[in-house]
Amino acid sequence: MSTPSNQPSSKNWYKWFDPRGKDLGSYAFILNRITALGLTFYLFLHLIVLGQLAIGPEAYDNFMAMLHNPIFVFGELLVVIAGIYHGLNGLRVALTSFGIAIPYQKQIFIGLLVLTVLGSLYFAVRMFTA
Amino acid sequence: MDMNHHNNSGWSVSFRVFRQKTGKDAHYDTVKLEVDPDEYVIDAIERIWAYHDRSLSFAHACHHSTCGACGMRVNGVEKLTCITPIHTIARNGGIVQVDPLRNFPIITDLVVDMGALYRRMAQVGHRPVVPLAEEPAGMPVRKSNNGEYTRLSDCIECGLCISACPVAASTPDYLGPAVLAGALQHGIKRQPGLLKLVDSEDGVWRCHSAFECTEVCPSYVEPGTKIMQLRRNVVSERFANLFRSNR
Lengths: 130, 247
Prior knowledge:
The structure holds 2 protein chains of 2 kinds.
Chain A: H1 24-55, H2 57-66, H3 70-97, H4 105-129
Helix pairs in contact in A: 1-2, 1-3, 3-4
Chain B: E1 11-19, E2 27-35, H1 41-51, E3 71-74, E4 77-80, E5 95-99, E6 106-108, E7 111-112, H2 115-123, E8 129-131, E9 150-152, H3 160-164, H4 166-170, H5 177-186, H6 194-198, H7 212-216, H8 223-246
Parallel strand pairs in B: 1-5
Antiparallel strand pairs in B: 1-2, 3-4, 3-5, 6-7, 8-9
Helix pairs in contact in B: 5-8
C-alpha cells in the first residue's frame, strides 16, 4: 500500500469530490463544485456554437438542427439542472454567509434538492415534448 | 435493544488499524477483540497496544474529552475516540477501521503532527481559559474579589475540524475552522494585525460552507457558525475603517 497523501496540498483537489464519511453540508459543497465545472464547460460549448455564426447562417442552422438530437437535448437538460441547483445553493450559501439560518443549512439543502428535482422534471417534460 | 445500556456480554469486533512507520509503506493491521459494546474506541486501541502490538503508536491523555489528543478517523469519520462508544459505530461481528486524522503530516501510525494548528491558534491569540464576562452569550456575571471568573475554552484543539474540512485538504495556507473560531473568541479589535490575518484569501473568505467542521466538533464550538460571525465582524470593521481613514 502506498503512502497516503496526508499533507494539505493543491494536488488534493480531487478530495473535494470524496463523499465518504461526510455529511449533507459536504454533499451540497460537492454538488456545487460539480455543477460549477459543468456550467463552465457549457460556457465554452456555448461560445463554440455562437462561433458558428461567424462561419455563416447555413453553418449555424445546420449546427442548430443537430442540437435537436435527443442526446443534445439531454445535455441541455443537464445544463438546466446544474443551473437550478447551483443558483439555489448559491442562495443557501449567501444566507448562511450572512449568518442567517445556519442551524437549518441541512434542511435548506434538502429543500433546494426537492426544488431542483421538481424544476428538472418540469423542464424535462417541456424540452422533450417540444 | 436499549442503545444506552448494553449487556456486558462481549462483542467480537475486528479493528483494522492504520500503520505506517517512517520510511515504510502504509498498511492496515487487523486485530479481533472481545469488547464491551459500551467501551470507547480508545479503550480498544489501548488494548491492542497492551496485548497485541507494543509498536502501535497513538496519542491520548485525559480520556474525558478535555485534552483533544485522541482524535482519529473511525470508519472514515473524525471522532474523539475517548468519547466514542464502540456500539455507536459497529455491531457484534463488525469491523472498525481506525485511521489518523487527515490534513496533518503523519508522524507514525495514528499520530499526526498538529504543530501547524497549535502555532496558528497561538497566532490568533486563542485563549484556553476565557473570562466568563467575555462569553458571546452575554450572560451577566458577577466579578470575584480577585478578578474575573473564568472557564475553560470550548475548543480543545483536537484538529477534527481541520481533518474534516474539504478546503483544508487542498489549501495548506488556509487558517482552518478551529483557528478562525479562535480568532473570533479573541476578537479582531483586541489584537493588531488579526484583522489583516483573517480578512484574507486564506482567512474567513476561504471557507466554502461545507459545515463539516461543525458536524465533527466534539466540543460544540460550531466553527462553521463562528466563521460566519467572524465574516460579519470583518465586514463591520472594514466599514468602520473607511470612516476612520476619512477623518
